[in-house]
Design brief:
With 281 residues, the chain is an alpha/beta fold. The chain contains 12 helices and 8 strands.
Length: 281
């Protein structure tokens, strides 16, 4: 089992080459490529292929893997699923970029259908969105990971429903442990056990104080209320065999902006390595 961390803060504070090196030097095995927020502007412009090749070269230079990516998060109800929609184009570019780097799966966020529209319309809209991207999955050999972020997939029954409807090996679930607690008021162990067998391809691991506080904090494990002991037990029970990926952007940012990126990454690696040890125990 590999331990990874998102690339966002390392890229933001020291750039591509030095960012990859910082993650490798901290002891991580792999990283989660970032195409969200301002990273979307940087990595998904007209020179997106050149940027992908630059990341690929840095990964090879420092012998670091990159198995997972986070696509752009800007989706909205009513967006068109073609080249006339800038947000759709960015998602397509992210999939191609990730394939160039050699990434196995990429998070593509669902579309939140506003109230008072029915759950049926929510399912239909997201089904059409994801199916429109399936030819790119086949072309680039990359799986789409659907994350429990939007209200569309906050609960495991909704995740199971969309994956059953899609009925394709190109679509899997990515379980964000913090989102389970802050958005669904469920500990991640419960969420994981409620999914259909074999659907989980990746994880976002971070801590939060939950739905009552209502802030998606992205803290290092054991700083808030998420039950990681039970989450690890659940992963073992369902036979999860993928990476453990820390998504702790807000935690890292507190230290990186004060010149402490490297020690923050090193400590985060030590905490993450404990989770790996727990899984293997």
């Amino acid at each position: 089992m590999l331990l990874g961390v998102e690339f966002y803060d390392a890229w933001k504070y020291v750039g591509i080459d030095a960012g990859v090196k910082a993650i490798k030097d901290a002891g991580f095995d792999t990283m989660d490529m970032s195409y969200q927020l301002d990273a979307a502007d940087f990595f998904l412009g007209e020179d997106y292929i050149e940027k992908a090749l630059e990341v690929k070269a840095a990964l090879k230079k420092y012998n670091l893997k990159c198995n997972q990516a986070h696509g752009p998060i800007e989706t909205y109800y009513g967006m068109k699923f073609d080249d006339s929609c800038p947000e759709y184009v960015r998602t397509c570019r992210a999939m191609e970029s990730a394939s160039i780097i050699g990434i196995q799966h990429i998070v593509v966020e669902g579309i939140e259908v506003p109230a008072p529209h029915s759950s049926y319309l929510n399912l239909e809209n997201n089904y059409r969105y994801y199916k429109s991207l399936e030819p790119l999955c086949e072309k680039y050999g990359i799986t789409i990971a659907i994350e429990n972020l939007r209200k569309s997939f906050t609960y495991p029954d909704l995740m199971n429903e969309i994956l059953r409807r899609l009925n394709s090996p190109w679509f899997k679930a990515l379980v964000d442990m913090g989102h389970c607690w802050v958005r669904a008021d469920m500990q991640p162990g419960e969420y994981i056990r409620s999914l259909d067998p074999g659907v989980i391809c990746g994880l976002h691991i971070h801590d939060t104080h939950g739905i009552r506080q209502g802030v998606d904090e992205h803290l290092l494990p054991w700083l808030a209320e998420v039950d990681f002991d039970d989450a690890i037990r659940a992963l073992k029970e369902v036979g999860y065999a993928g990476d453990l990926t820390l998504e702790i952007r807000m935690f890292l940012d507190r230290y990186a902006k004060r010149g402490l990126l490297q020690p923050a990454l090193a400590f985060s690696q030590a905490v993450g390595r404990k989770l790996v040890e727990m899984y293997k125990a």
